[in-house]
């Protein structure tokens, strides 16, 4: 039954909350007035239960959409947030967010038609993350738009507008600006850390993006953080949520806690002594919605006199106002967004946009002329641990792409007529029990039955963990290489070609049976290896050769050696079950005569004309509050900015072959690749490039696409001593306050063409309206078309103590044909572009004096400059 049928049935009884002529707030207040105290408290938790007597359906507020609809089955996966920031393309960000909201709306209404009201099926999305990526060690920095407040604000506002839509009555979705406001690691300390930046750093660095999303984006929700800020829990801070957010910025929406952050108030921060006190404190200070269960104690808190029922009423009314603004209590025909058909999900146009976003996000860090690769090459060696890894496309908080293209596949697709040999070479990091080191059995050597023309194995997907009953889904899977990665501490059933909730498969407690035939290409001794989280059993010709039918906390592998004959078909069956949380399963092999992986990679390199090394990081080692640590990583954060040692050693050996080596990096943060910069031919940063990332990389390597992404973070040198990770002072951090020489500066990115800047025109003084007009001519002086990101920075010539060295205050991504020129115009508003926070006055000020406008291709590439005067303000 659709959620709106019950309210319609009640309409005849004159329920005032169904009166569509009244305001949403009035209707919400009328509904809340009919609830008991216990019902109100239950509605203030993310998994809000139904109130059948009032026609209120169950609703879970928890949904994710960082770079596509996440954790809700099949959805278009765009490049990770940090990669979208690298496009420096605000209109593109708006297009991406619009597609995400289209798919989110379509999926939500499909869930309703199926009678589902669970987590990851709603309309309130906890994105974007506009925290400042102040330190490259932070594992969650990949979720942000980088280190600069201005870039973050511009990208964030565009994302919010795309999610929330442009209807004057109904919101398309609710976006959520998170995590207010001083939150960027360390992950291991986030539940008890107290961040105390200077007020100058708070207002000049940590707050501007949030302010912009509230004032310009009209964002409907804000999420608090786990840590304390100036001694207060960020999710129960009177200063942040009452004084700043509501009083100073005029925020009208609702605040949600980060998940289980309310528990931290009494359990880890020890600000109060009990659950009731923590819940009351959070609500009184402005957090209306909890992700967690502590608000279940609110009725007891009212009885103890810790909070009034009127304060509860105000919070619940805000929440139901938001739900009503989303159209949840109105007939679907009144809600424009409810008419988006299910067919939009993963539409071809969305895949095309994912490819465009990936193309625009690629950053060419170095090129000695080897790129673009020549079409006359005969052999290319592709080596490295992330070349054929779907996880290297996805980062974290992702959905399930229909047909993800790995970087290896993208290179093969682009290298028409060129032999491409692949060798993984090394594991991602040292000390990792890495089942993905074993190559998957390719579809060419599998068939679902003796008489089938298809390639792969027959997969039967069951709703239970014991392979019982009728399969909910039957299909042919080309390879068995799945990863349902949920992250921590949340649940996330996602994979390469997946079993997902939308297909009738639950998030936990499911099982799969694959069956068919194995067709060895050569005779000899094979090692067949299976890996899973949780249980698996493998049968060959009816004999059980592997048996690990037990729960496990992580992906574990086992193998068996078998003598197999070419030309013979062997019956093959793999059974698998998932108990709970993370899930994954693989079926791989090593063929007779296979060399050790490292030697195999060097052999491929020696016999190639050029080597493409694909390595870096994945969401398996950098991310949110991880419990498994490896050398160079701690709790999802990084302790070493260099490539993991395994990869460094392989790169050195590849270089020693004398062949040109092109490096393609995956990851969500800055990498100290000094040695590669000094010794190798080219370096391309691909980030986590989404479902079509491999296609984009292949096109860029062969020149079908001219890379033009720019770094949204500073890349530091390997020997750079960084400030203490838990010190939230901005001094020494980011291009704005770092005094040294970076490996690659903020805004850096090369091209296959070159651009000239000339004829900068800027007013000598600000106009009476406080604005400054700036124009510059940009020309493509090369022989091929390309994009340039024109960047405008401002610096104060009489800089005071604590002033930034320079600040980004404008950027435009433009496309120019070979020989084409264009005038690029900027308008600066002094009240925004020149302001900084004065602690003595406890306010933003715009200091008079001389300023310099710098325009060029990066923060370290000022091609043209001009000065202007800001006269003292006359009272």
From TrEMBL:
One GO BP annotation of this record: arabinan catabolic process
Domain PA14: 452-605
Pfam families for this protein: Fn3-like, Glyco_hydro_3, Glyco_hydro_3_C, PA14
SMART domains: Fn3_like, PA14
GO molecular function: alpha-L-arabinofuranosidase activity; beta-glucosidase activity; xylan 1,4-beta-xylosidase activity
Superkingdom, natural source: Bacteria
Keyword terms of this UniProt record: Hydrolase, Signal
Keyword match Signal: yes
Family: Belongs to the glycosyl hydrolase 3 family.
Name listed for the protein in its UniProt record: Beta-D-glucoside glucohydrolase
